[in-house]
Amino acid sequence: MDVHGRIREILAETIREELAPDQQQLSTEDLIKALRRRGIIDDVMKELNFVTDNVDQELPSSPKQPVCFTDRQSTLLKKTNIDPTRRYLYLQVLGGKAFLEHLQEPEPLPGQVCSTFTLCLHFRNQRFRSKPVPCACEPDFHDGFLLEVHRESLGDGTRMADSTTMLSISDPIHMVLIKTDIFGETTLVASYFLEWRSVLGSENGVTNLTVELMGVGTESKVAVGILNIKLEMYPALNQTLSQEVVNTQLALERQKTAEKERLFLVYAKQWWREYLQIRPSHSSRLVKIFAQDENGINRPVCSYVKPLRAGRLLDTPRQAARFVNVLGYERAPVIGGGGKQEQWCTLLAFLCRNKGDCEDHANLLCSLLLGYGLEAFVCVGTKAKGVPHAWVMTCGTDGTITFWESLTGHRYIHKSTNPDEPPVAEQPKPLYPYRTVGCVFNHQMFLGNCQPSDSVEVCVFDLNDESKWKPMSEEAIKSDLGLTTVWEDQLSYLLSPALASYEFERTTSISAGNEEFQDAIRRAVPDGHTFKGFPIHFVYRNARRAFATCLRSPFCEEIICCRGDQVRLAVRVRVFTYPESACAVWIMFACKYRSVL
């Protein structure tokens, strides 16, 4: 039934028949009476279908039982399980406006391929992606995202985060807007860090925000559009903070951050002056201390790298290198002629766009290798014809230096050439494409190359020798250190490459990739500690049966019942699937401890 059409016809007819010449307008009651008299209201009520929702039913007695959350704003009711003992932030995107670049965009016909916008979110190790919507001046975003607020807190499983606790969580919500054209090519439109804690001072824990998105790169000062955002706390806050308290906290944090940035800038200037005093020619070396992100903000290069764990998506460091290699390579776009536009993307912007420059690839690969427990660094230098380039280097516990080319996935072992050797002595011929190196860095260290020559071929990568590498103060490069528990998550993650290597060896009779695992374990086990590992193989998936078999092994029992000082246990399981429900299951138990005997 065309409800709107019928209503328009009856209202027009009513106005023609009942509006007297001396009467200026009909009241709302007159119009409703006319609709009821014609039977329209009864017809509409018959057409409506009411959905019975079980949300309002009494909750089960167990406090841990997830309840159903219903998004009543959507056309279709959508439900998701939430834990009633945890605190969530529900973020809704209720449309966009003023995307003026698409003002003349025609409305797409049904089934027609068109350019689309996709909104990506990241908050405390949680990532979300909206449904693609056609590009328009007012894009029809209508998505909701349920963000767990204290996801990273350990030991708070039975404790509800209150307003004061959440006010101390300074992580913003990173929002990245991606445009995908009809050929599947992606473009980074905007990157925005949303401060969500204003909701803690709002009445009923609900607030509406208007977010102005700015462009990226050379257009970082130009607005590209506006998003309407609604924030809501679940469960509702028992006690909200005053807006004055929230604003004061945010102002203090901004002030503290600005002071830290100022102090680092002062220190970096002093470090650079000292570096130039060693040798004036150092001014021409590629020593990169700051780099501009997609929003045109200068950030220390160390902030672009952080240990990143891929969970069960990537088994080994070499697989991680392959993953980074298949991401697309694209230089930052430049308007007009001239040189290369500098733009180092944040990890989220790079991953959402699925392509980036060599620096983006190198930062991501270095982050992944750090997650595997390797001592990894990003190298900034040049390759053939003096073209600036970035690649990754890992330092083995035995002193082996390995270069990883993030754009191709190739690995090269570096053997330094001694320029003092007589000409008749045979020197190793480098296979890598790198010519010079100015500096190396990761999330905790920054070192400038102060050797007489910056040629990679003759460089010695003994990073502890301050006569060859000038370090920055570790206090100046602040890093967040995680807590360790009896079952150590990081040690468990380090076991993944070993299990993948065992299955690869069974399949191909070739042993590969075990060097990185051994190196990571040596770094994860402190001096004076002992590491024990026990791998075992099954061809079935019954966990109870597999664990009972493991316990019958004296080696496994020795690990699980290990006694000593600072004992840390780890377990990792990897299932390799084959046709007809066949599988190969590898389990590895491990421990590290300091012996008290």
TrEMBL record:
It holds the Pfam family CEPT76_peptidase. Residues 342-472 form the CEP76/DRC7 peptidase-like domain. Residues 478-594 form the Centrosomal protein of 76 kDa C-terminal domain. Residues 1-48 form the CEP76 N-terminal domain. InterPro entries: CEP76, CEP76-C2, CEP76_C, CEP76_N, CEPT76/DRC7_peptidase-like_dom, Papain-like_cys_pep_sf. Keywords: Cytoplasm, Cytoskeleton. Signal peptide: none annotated. The keyword S-adenosyl-L-methionine does not apply. Its main location: cytoplasm. It is found in: Cytoplasm, Cytoskeleton, Microtubule organizing center, Centrosome, Centriole. Residues 81-238 form the CEP76 C2 domain. Belongs to the CEP76 family. Centrosomal protein involved in regulation of centriole duplication. Required to limit centriole duplication to once per cell cycle by preventing centriole reduplication. This is Centrosomal protein of 76 kDa. The lineage of its organism: Eukaryota, Metazoa, Chordata, Craniata, Vertebrata.
